[in-house]
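sry for the spam today, last one i promise. C-alpha cells for design, 320 residues
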C-alpha cells in the first residue's frame, strides 16, 4: 500500500481504533460479558490480519497434547456454510475451510469443528474433550480462554503498526497485554541479539509476559495426492511452478530459492478458492514448459483446496 493511500485511510483507522477501544473497555469492566469454561481452553491468535503462523503453532500444540482428548475449534474462514459443523470424511474446504480440513486430515484422532460463535462451539464440545484449542480467536472476547498465545510475524515489525484499513492491525497494538505468551514467528535462522532486543523493546511495557522466538523448519516435499508417489529432488536445475493462495508466501519463496532460482509463481490471495480456470492455466503453463526437470509445488493448506474431483483429475498425473 502506498504512503499516500495510507494517509487517505488514516481517519478511518482512527475511527476504527476508537470503536475497538470502547468495545475492549466494555469487556474489561464487565459491561460486556465473557463466558468462562471448566476445562482448559487455549487461544492461538494475532493482532494483524493475514498469516502469522497460527496453523503450524496449533498443530504443534496438538502434538504436545498427545494422549489428551483434543478438539480444535475454528471459525472456518472461507467456507460457504454457516453454524456449527464437525469435520468428517465428506468435509471439503468449501464446507469447513482449508485450515480445519488440514487439521482433520493430519490428526484423525482429534475432533475438528467450525463455528462462528465460539461460545456455542465450546459448549457443544466440552463434555467429550479434555482441552479445546481456539484457532484465531484473540478478538472473540465473548469467550475467555485459560491461556492466550499471541503470534507476531517477524517481518511485519518493519512496517507501520496501523489499524485497518490503513494498516493490517485488527486492534490497537496495546492489545498484546491481554496475552499470556507472545510468540514471534517466521524469524530468520540467524537472529542476532540486537534484533531480539529491538523486538523486546516493543513489548517492554509488559515485561511479565514471556516472549519467545521461532522459525520455520520446512520438511521434505511430499506428493499432494499419494504418499506412494515419488517426489523429484529439487536441484538448481529444477524449474518450480509454485502455486500459492496464502497471506505471505515470501518465506516459502525464499526457502525454495535456496534450491532453485528458476521459480514461476502462480500467486493468489489468501484462502483463494481455486477455480477450474485457475488450475487449467497452471496445467497448461506446466505442460507447455520446455524444461525437462520441472515440478509443481504448493503448500499443505493450499493442497486442501485442490481435492475437488474436477481439479484433482487435472493434476493427478503431474508431479505436484
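last one done:
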Amino acid at each position: 500500500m502506498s504512503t499516500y493511500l495510507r494517509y487517505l485511510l488514516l481517519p478511518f483507522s482512527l475511527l476504527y481504533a476508537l470503536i475497538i477501544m470502547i468495545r475492549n473497555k466494555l469487556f474489561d469492566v464487565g459491561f460486556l460479558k465473557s463466558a468462562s469454561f471448566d476445562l482448559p481452553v487455549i487461544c492461538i491468535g494475532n493482532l494483524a490480519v493475514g498469516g502469522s503462523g497460527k496453523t503450524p503453532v496449533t498443530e504443534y500444540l496438538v502434538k504436545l497434547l498427545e494422549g489428551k482428548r483434543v478438539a480444535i475449534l475454528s471459525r472456518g474462514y472461507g467456507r460457504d456454510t454457516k453454524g456449527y459443523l464437525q469435520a468428517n470424511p465428506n468435509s471439503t474446504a468449501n464446507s469447513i475451510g482449508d485450515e480445519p480440513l488440514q487439521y482433520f486430515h493430519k490428526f484423525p484422532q482429534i475432533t475438528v469443528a467450525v463455528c462462528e460463535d465460539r461460545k456455542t462451539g465450546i459448549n457443544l464440545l466440552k463434555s467429550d474433550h479434555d482441552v479445546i484449542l481456539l484457532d484465531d480467536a484473540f478478538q472473540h472476547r465473548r469467550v475467555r480462554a485459560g491461556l492466550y498465545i499471541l503470534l507476531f510475524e517477524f517481518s511485519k515489525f518493519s512496517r507501520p503498526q496501523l489499524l485497518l484499513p490503513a494498516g493490517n492491525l485488527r486492534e490497537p497494538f496495546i492489545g498484546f497485554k491481554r496475552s499470556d505468551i507472545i510468540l514471534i514467528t517466521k524469524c530468520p535462522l540467524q537472529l542476532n541479539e540486537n534484533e531480539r532486543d529491538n523486538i523486546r523493546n516493543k513489548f517492554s511495557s509488559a515485561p511479565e509476559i514471556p516472549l519467545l522466538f521461532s522459525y520455520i523448519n520446512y520438511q521434505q516435499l511430499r506428493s499432494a495426492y499419494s504418499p506412494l508417489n515419488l517426489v523429484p529432488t529439487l536441484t538448481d536445475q529444477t524449474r518450480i511452478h509454485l502455486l500459492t493462495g496464502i497471506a505471505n508466501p515470501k518465506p516459502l519463496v525464499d526457502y525454495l530459492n535456496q534450491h532453485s532460482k528458476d521459480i514461476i509463481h502462480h500467486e493468489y490471495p489468501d484462502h483463494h478458492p481455486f477455480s477450474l480456470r485457475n488450475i487449467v492455466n497452471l496445467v497448461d503453463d506446466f505442460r507447455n514448459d520446455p524444461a525437462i526437470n520441472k515440478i509443481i509445488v504448493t503448500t499443505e493448506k493450499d493442497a486442501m483446496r485442490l481435492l475437488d474431483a474436477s481439479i484433482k483429475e487435472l493434476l493427478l498425473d503431474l508431479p505436484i
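The chain has a mean pLDDT of 94. ok im logging off now
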